[in-house]
What we know:
- This protein is mostly beta strands.
- 4% of the residues lie in helices and 45% in strands.
- The chain has a 6-stranded mixed β-sheet, with no helix packed on it. It has a 4-stranded antiparallel β-sheet with strand order 10-13-17-16, with no helix packed on it. A 3-stranded antiparallel β-sheet has the order 2-1-7.
- The chain starts with a strand and ends with a strand.
- The model has no long low-confidence stretch (mean pLDDT 95).
Amino acid sequence: VEVLFTGLDRGIQGELEHAYERSLPLDEALRPELLLAYEINGQPLPPQHGFPLRLVVPGWYGMTHVKWLDRITVVTEPFEGYQQAHQYREKQSEDDPGIPITRMLPRSLLVPPGIPDFPDRRRFLEPGSCRLEGRAWSGRGPITRVEVSVDGGQSWEDAVLDEPTGEFGWRLWTFGWDAEPGDHELCSRATDEAGNVQPSEATWNFGGYVNNSVQRVPVTVTQTV
């Protein structure tokens, strides 16, 4: 009923020593986009990325992509190991059994324009034509729309989407902005084919997981940069 992926890394959590293990339902494990990766960009997989072998599950959150893969086991009952039954679940309290975290919710991020000013992270930009761009993705369906706001989410306009790169690949988007002097808050939000829309604020959960709230980039447009 499931395929269990076991990594070489071990640790103690919940007073239990165990190897890192995650399972996938059989139909998910048989999907054609899953990979066992041993190279990246033509080079051996670096140790920090799971050398010599790691699982790659497009569309799922990173805890599913088991690193330092040791073995794969087909099991006849649902896996109830620590990382499956207790970790990576949306909980309302520490004792809440919660809901398993699976596929990614839609998200869009933009490349902050202009010159940064630390520590408040505000960007400074000259007025005039500005090309905003970013990437959007979802594990629930292909990205079909990205909207951009330059006033902190009070109004939204559609961005231009590049061609998709597979069902779960990042999708490039661009937006032409006539930057006028003053303070602005840049935002972008994504919508996928299933109708899921990136929210202004994330839904709270005990572990702080699946936070796909709208990114906010403060920008000051000034004549002097």
